[in-house]
Amino acid sequence: MPHGLNADTVGPVDVAVVAFQGSRFDGNIVPALQELQQNGTVHVLDLTFVRKDADGSVVIVELSDTSDTEVADAFQHVTDVQFDLLSDADLRAVTDDLTPGSSAMIVVWENTWAAQLSAALRRSKGEIMMLERIPRKAVLAAIAALDTT
């Protein structure tokens, strides 16, 4: 079993695709990811980078890939485990949506903050019937509406 994961206690797992213009990744987001992991909010399970060159060719860079040392060096301390939940086909699907000359980071994390609640729900035979993220634009519109009243 991968480090820190137990089927009975694992929290909900999310995946996010973060697109960037250009093809260079820097380490500016590393401190935020590390802080979330260190304070127990999330456990980063997998981190992959994809790049679509101007000619449409695709490059996939895993943290374990030593051919791109710039990415590996910048992000190596974010996660202690590579738990491959995404297939090569999943990663290729992400690149299909990228415009040439852009890149994306695909990050998979366990919501460790919710692990205890999830375990309690399973023990009580509870089942989440709906879970959906409210789009940021909708939240901002609701906040703006509060300010006008």
Q: What does the overall shape look like?
A: globular
Measured by DSSP, the beta-strand proportion falls in: 15-25%
Overall tally of structural domains: 1
How widely separated are the two ends? Answer: 53 Å
Rg from alpha-carbon coordinates: 18 Å
Low-pLDDT segments, ≥5 res = none
Order of helices and strands: EHEEHHEHH
The main β sheet shows up as:
4 strands, antiparallel
Helix-residue proportion:
25-40%
Tell how many strands the DSSP assignment holds.
Answer: 4
Nearest-integer average pLDDT? 83
Largest beta sheet: strand ordering: 1-4-2-3
Question: Summarize this, please?
Answer:
The protein has one domain (13-148).
Helix/strand layout:
Layout: E1 13-21, H1 30-38, E2 43-52, E3 58-62, H2 69-75, H3 88-96, E4 102-110, H4 115-123, H5 136-148
Antiparallel strand pairs: 1-4, 2-3, 2-4
Describe the structure.
By secondary structure, this protein is an alpha+beta fold. It has one domain. The protein is 32% helix and 22% strand. It has 5 helices and 4 strands. A 4-stranded antiparallel beta sheet has the order 1-4-2-3, sandwiched between helices. The longest helix has 13 residues. The mean pLDDT is 83.
Throw out a few tags for this protein.
alpha+beta; 149 residues
